[in-house]
Amino acid sequence: MDYATRTLLKSAGMNVGWLLSSGFFYWLVASSPASAIVSLVAAIGSGLLLFLAIRIYLLWFESIKQHPPSNFAVPALALVVYFSLLIAMWSYLYVFLARTAEDASFPFCSGADPIDPKQFGLLESIYFAVISFATVGYGDIYACTSGSRWALVAELSNVVTIGFIGLPALVNMVIDLAQRKFANIKSTNGVTDMPFVTGTLVVGMAIIAFAEPVTYEVLTAGNMPDGEIIQIYAGISAAMLISIAFGALMVATNRMLGGHDTRPILLKRAIRLVVLGYVLFVEGIAYLYLLIDRPGANAFAFARSGEHRLDFGSASYFSLTTLTTTGFGDIAPLSPTARMATIGEIMVGIVFALFAFGLVISAIVSQRVQSRV
């Protein structure tokens, strides 16, 4: 591992330590007046560390122009940590606004009324920051005072900055590295893919994607929807589908941008992997939502009066609208567990999209390079 990558890894580790320690200190003083000061310090500290982390990442980016990394595990981890720092900065700022506001003019509302200050803590703040940053916006929490709205405008400006500056830079990096990697690949060996491996992976993912919902419906038809068998099946399915989706994309992406002896996969197989990966990820999170929405849990709020519980169809629908940042608001997470799961899906979904994006772009570049050889 080169010096720049080691520095990037150390920076990520330091930032993780800050996130854990700041969260621990806030938890210690959460119910005291000191929580306002701690949240403000945590917000400022997260912002400063984020600024420093971006500079370190830019130095790493300059270094790889001369010495491409063997894999992208460390920079991908660093991006996840940086995103967490960004969310922490805004979350602590929202907590500070909430702790210093008068009860009559609480900065966040639900429905037509301000939220009870006792019901708005760090988890609710993180939830609001994530759904705002990801542009989901279920409408269950929104800014309703001048101060909180200006803060939200500032947060959303980060979305614009990342969208118009960060993503084009990422595209350029992936294309540049892929071109240099595949320019050295000759067609003399006659092999540009591993058709058996990738073909088997695609077929297996397709079978699982279609078989899982059918099996679930068969089980629910013969058993109680909240029975032990159904719960066990949903739990195993959630873990298995999410793991397969990420495992397939990580293996494929590492082959595209990993070691020098890797072989590029065809564009059509890359697209199939991405599509099936998304399907499995949506289904896996849907099973997780079904586990959370147990009888009496009151985990989700529904706009229609006739809906009170999730079934597999509505859970998949909510999972997909969350992953695609649509957020119609007809279904919204209500309990802390449901909101934590939603936060996880949004944040992991962003990382998932980056892997898928890099895979397809690299496949396009490799196909063009091969056509010129």
UniProtKB/TrEMBL annotation:
Q: How does it sit in the membrane?
A: Multi-pass membrane protein
GO MF annotation: an example:
potassium ion leak channel activity
What subcellular compartments does it reside in?
A: Membrane
Give the primary localization class. membrane
> What are the record keywords, sorted?
Ion channel, Ion transport, Membrane, Transmembrane, Transmembrane helix, Transport
GO cellular component terms?
Answer: plasma membrane
Q: Domain named Potassium channel: which ranges?
A: 118-157, 292-364
Q: Which residues form a coiled coil?
A: none
UniProt protein name? Potassium channel family protein
Q: Please report the organism this UniProt entry assigns to the protein.
A: Bradyrhizobium barranii subsp. barranii
